[in-house]
């Protein structure tokens, strides 16, 4: 059984699938803001971000650019780092559970915790990418 698990964890397809699964949330959000630009602008205004068009374009660029680097496993550390900064800023700007009344505070706290979990996944992906490159003799 351990041999099967080892083969799966060492496989290129499992590494590709893991990166895809991690990128889905960023890809979908970035594409939604791109395809429904007015909706993205409304999100930026609701968060108090002005000029809304600039923040929407920057958000799209970070979400789609970071996802691309994650999916391609090229400068994955850079894509993951950009997405980590985005997630942490989102907690500070949008999901400010410490400053909101109930029940908004509880919902915002769960979003913040989800973002923290994604930060962990992105850091793990950056570490795994580096280790895989070392093992393959590319680093």
Summarize the structure.
This protein has helices at 2-10, 12-35, 37-46, 52-72, 76-93, 104-135. With 139 residues, the chain is mainly α. It has one domain.
Portion of residues in beta strands equals under 5%
The shape, in one word, is: globular
Distance between the termini: 31 Å
The number of distinct helices, counting runs of at least 4 residues, comes to 6
- What is the succession of H and E elements? HHHHHH
Mean pLDDT: 95
Q: How much helix, percentage-wise, in residues?
A: over 70%
Q: Major β-sheet, in short?
A: none
Uncertain stretches: none
The counted number of beta strands is 0
- Rg to the nearest angstrom? 17 Å
Structural class: mainly alpha
**Number of folding domains?**
1
Description:
It is built from six helices and no strands. It starts with a helix and ends with a helix. The protein is an all-alpha fold. The radius of gyration is 17 Å and the shape is globular. It has one domain (2-135). Helix 2 crosses helix 3 (37-46) and helix 4 runs antiparallel to helix 5.
